[in-house]
Write a structure and sequence with these properties.
The protein is 67% helix and 14% strand. A four-stranded antiparallel β-sheet has the order 2-5-7-8, with no helix packed on it. Strands 1-6 form a two-stranded parallel ribbon. A two-stranded antiparallel ribbon has the order 3-4. The protein has two domains: 22-67 and 122-289 and 330-439, Up-down Bundle (Outer membrane efflux proteins (OEP)); 71-120 and 292-326. The chain has helices spanning 2-25, 32-42, 44-65, 90-95, 123-190, 196-230, 245-249, 265-285, 333-400, 405-439; strands at 27-30, 70-79, 85-87, 101-103, 108-121, 238-241, 291-304, 315-325. It is of the alpha+beta class and 443 residues long.
């Protein structure tokens, strides 16, 4: 029995391991456009915003319903245990044998009522409807802001992956060059062509590059993991980045110089909130205004002493009319509400001006970062060309015995650092451009 249980557990573990291996081999190829599409499709914030838009739309339809005719029907049965009475003056009392009052009505009373109402002039309802539209506009803008923010985060994470990938490639080439030099130096050392010092320096060079190489591999894994989190992908999902930083370096280094903040989401939301508050102010002011509505009513009723419903005599009555309501005095509550709302509008406008000034500074900072990165790119490109030339010369000199291992190692280090600096500068340009697009409200 124990052997059977053990075999079953072993088989189950093998199946789980095979499933995990199969899942890991299902690799997704990612470029920037694909990553953004996955992020927007899986982003819960955007999904919640879409649901909120539907909710506000129904709220607007509810407000529109208040402008339409309202119909209601009711029915009532009354058992008059003690009937109502009507008092009579003395002259009638003598005619009724001295009775001073008389009962009226019947024991059982039935009433059916159909009522209708229609607002004709109601400023409050109209302003409420405008506020509902502003609510929809605000939710739509918040949804757009979520997409812009998600785009910014995904681009930053994706560019970080490209930088980590490029850095790993540079360090891989560097450590391969160092291993090739070590192998050549080892052979020369065994043949007595170079000293033991050169052989030791070649070994040290490889060992010194190993930590940076390992760190670059871990950095790439971490960058990809962060990208997966933004895309709502499982951690075990295989991902292959199909682009490189070099692909983006082929594009012209241009950016939007308009500095137009009309599509900035923060300012748009402030504008909509100001509009909503102004509508609320108008709504408060409508409380000073009269309202007019039309109404109609049809009543169908009968009364009887018994329950012989088939013999009842039913009587109908109808009425229509207009209802006018004029507010006169509410203890200055409306005026105080109006003053509070006016101050709130003033505060929000000051906040908008302050936000606008801050965004202009952010735009200038992003442009300065891009310009600095562009200048650094040109300098680093020249540095790479010079470092490659220096490395070639040092390599030939070392192979011919006219140069030293120190010269070769130094030239290799300079070449590696120049390439890493170039990639870092290009990454700085891309992230600054992404930040500028976010400030300008580009989706």
């Amino acid at each position: 029995m124990r052997n059977k249980i053990f075999r079953l557990l072993t088989l189950e573990l093998c199946m789980i391991s095979f499933g995990a291996m199969a899942q890991n081999t299902d690799t997704i190829s990612l470029d920037l456009a694909t990553a953004l599409k996955i992020a927007h499709d899986n982003n819960p914030t955007i999904k919640i915003a879409d649901i909120e838009i539907q909710r506000i739309d129904y709220s607007k339809k509810e407000a529109i319903g208040n402008l339409l005719p309202q119909l209601s029907a009711s029915g009532q049965y009354t058992d008059n245990i003690k009937k109502s009475v009507m008092f009579m003056p003395e002259s009638f009392s003598a005619m009724m044998g001295g009775a001073k009052y008389m009962e009226i009505g019947y024991k059982n009373s039935y009433t059916g009522t159909l009522s209708a109402a229609l607002p004709l002039v109601n400023f409050s309802l109209w302003e409420t409807l405008k506020n509902k539209q502003a609510d929809i506009d605000l939710v739509l803008e918040k949804s757009r802001a979520s997409k812009i923010d998600m785009t910014n985060q995904v681009k930053d994470a994706y560019y970080a992956c490209l930088l980590a990938k490029a850095s790993l490639d540079v360090l891989t080439k560097s450590i391969n060059n160092a291993k090739e030099t070590l192998k050549s130096t080892e052979n020369s050392y065994k043949n007595g062509a170079v000293s033991e010092y050169d052989y030791i320096r070649a070994q040290v060079q490889v060992n010194n590059l190993n930590p940076s190489f390992i760190s670059a591999k871990n950095g790439l894994q971490l960058a990809i993991l962060q990208l997966k989190m933004l895309l709502s992908l499982p951690a075990e999902q295989g991902v292959k980045i199909t682009e490189t930083l070099e692909d983006y370096s082929k594009e012209p280094l241009t950016y939007d110089t308009s500095r137009d903040l009309s599509t900035n989401s923060d300012l748009r939301q402030l504008d909509i909130n100001i509009q909503k508050t102004e509508n609320s102010l108008k709504l408060i002011k409508t409380q000073h205004l009269p309202s007019l509505s039309a109404f109609g009513q049809y009543v169908y009723q009968t009364q009887a002493e018994d329950f012989k419903i088939a013999d009842y005599n039913w009587v109908g009555s109808a009425a229509i009319g207009l209802s006018l309501s004029i507010p006169i005095y509410k203890g200055n509550t409306i005026i105080n509400q109006q003053k509070q709302t006016e101050l709130a509008i003033k505060e929000m406008r000051l906040q908008r001006d302050y936000t606008s000034d801050g965004l202009k500074l952010q735009i200038q900072s992003a442009i300065n970062s891009m310009e600095a990165a562009k200048e650094q790119l040109l300098a680093n490109k020249d540095a790479i060309a010079q470092a490659e030339r220096g490395y070639s010369i040092a390599k030939v000199r070392y192979q011919t015995g006219t140069g030293t291992i120190l010269e070769l190692n130094d030239s290799e280090l300079s070449l590696t650092q120049s390439k890493l600096n170039y990639q870092q500068s290009f990454y700085n340009y891309l992230t600054a451009k992404t930040n500028l697009d976010k400030i300008l409200g580009k989706e």
